Fold:
Amino acid sequence: MSASSPTALIADDEAPLREQLRMRLAEAWPELRIVAEAANGSEALELAALHKPDIAFLDIRMPGMGGIDAARQLYNRCHIVFATAYDQYALDAFEQGAIDYLLKPVTPARLQTTCERLRARLTRAPQDIGAQLAELGTLLKQGGAAKPSYLRWIQAQVGGSLRMVSTREILFFQADDKYTCVQTATAQLLIRKTLKELADELDPDEFW
Structure:
């Protein structure tokens, strides 16, 4: 895996959307080489085995095998980014070790953020990435072993995209009508829950 000339695969059942993503990636990350394009998850797996890309951009709803199932088999073989029109699959996506989750239509600014995140990941050792994703999956599924299953990761919205935020990163919450603002050291995010709803889901040893 090379950070100087990384490679990627795009999987989407709609050819115009594959083309659009390829063009926007060329603008956001000129060094990135698209080595293969697939119309479904099965094709993505075959092409990934052949080309061994560093990154796979996967749609979630595709004929036959979808992106989530493909990601399960690509786990730890390449970095996964989901690009989809559906936000209800975000938790499943991050459980499969996704680096990012993009909501269509993907804006150039949002894609640039994803590319920067991927550049940073490509400089890490593979074993470190595997350990981090394994820990993330455990936290998402169990929420801790000895304590009750309080939230450890929160799905929050930044602009038109979704992001998983560790509760350890959160400085404070602020009520905003039917939503809750989440403040971290680097960003302000939005949760589609009231502060009252969150109260029972957060570890009282960390909050309140």
